[in-house]
Amino acid sequence: MKALAVYQCRLASDPNCFTEIDLDQPQLGARDLLIRVKAISVNPVDYKVRASIVEKQSTPRILGWDAAGVVEQVGEAVQLFKPGDEVYYAGSLIRPGSNSEYQAVDERIVGRKPTNLSFEEAAALPLTTITAWEALFERLAIEPSKTAKNQASHVLIIGGAGGVGSIAIQLAKQVAGLQVIATASRPETIEWCQKMGADYCISHREKKDELAKLDIQEVDYILCFNDTDGHWKSMAEVIKPQGKICSIVETAQPLDLNLIKNKSATFVWELMFTKSMYATEDIQSQHDLLNQTAELIEQNVLKTTMTQSLGSLNAANLAKAHTQLESGKTIGKLVLSGIDS
């Protein structure tokens, strides 16, 4: 099978950033699906992992953690899918990724593709949807329904126009019924956040003053999808006593948790790869939530966050996607179709 590999980190502008190679099809574990990849999307984890490959590798590293495709074969203990099923998934950080013609993936982290989306539109969703869903409904323990408590509560989403922010706004508003405040700075990102369902948009900085303009003094929940270090002091300022903060962005230095001590506030991390990396007992919850998301999309409650297709999956187009994502100005999600046969 064809695949795009990294042997050592190179700049995305380098024509040798990705190498086209031929590999044997992956061997299946008992609960694995062999999926023919029809479309992929890119995420910050892609270029972060690429940047971490400092030493030249003897074994090629296949990146990519967002895809949609068709089940070709199933492992001997597979229960949830059959050959021919159309699926979408994010895969596992510790297994070969989706920048390839075929991929082996544990069925428990795979969902059925929404029937009203193309493969490209579906590929934009899995990683960010799992991240946002787990952050909201597991880490922050928010009820995934429009309860009276939710409708009276505010969630501040830092980085609303990015991939995770785009679906988090929808889940927070359309599923949980929260009052959603998103940070955005450019006219086009403000417009996008509003399109996704944000009630209010404020600038990334001076959050206390920005919220005061809305007659909001503090918020019940915060989702941080950008620069945890840079936003930490302002998050501590505006979180309510006994409120909850969840971040997905690693820090360069230890956080001063004393800033939220007197408020008895909660801080928690979210990494959507945790369940697949550690084979946790609740790993199949990712299959379940992707199926729930498919239903919500088919009911027109949620919509794809795809904003741009960069063509078929080849070395040049993948490098272009990494370059664009590294700029930090991408709105929604970038996708590519599968590898040309």
What CATH architecture label of the largest domain applies? Answer: Alpha-Beta Complex
Helix percent reads 25-40%
Please state roughly what percent of the residues sit in beta strands, choosing from under 5%, 5-15%, 15-25%, 25-35%, 35-45% or over 45%. 15-25%
Question: Distance N terminus to C terminus?
Answer: 9 Å
CATH topology of the largest domain, which one?
A: Quinone Oxidoreductase, Chain A, domain 1
**Total individual domains:** 2
Number of strands: 15
The major beta sheet can be summarized as: 7 strands, mixed
User: What ranges have pLDDT less than 50 throughout 5 or more consecutive residues?
Assistant: none
Averaging pLDDT over every residue, what do you get?
Answer: 96
Q: Which structural category do the helix and sheet elements fall into?
A: alpha/beta
Secondary-structure element string: EEEHEEEEHHHEHEHEHEHEEHHEHE
Overall radius of gyration? 20 Å
Global outline: globular
Number of helices: 11
CATH superfamily of the largest domain: Medium-chain alcohol dehydrogenases, catalytic domain
- CATH class of the largest domain, named Alpha Beta
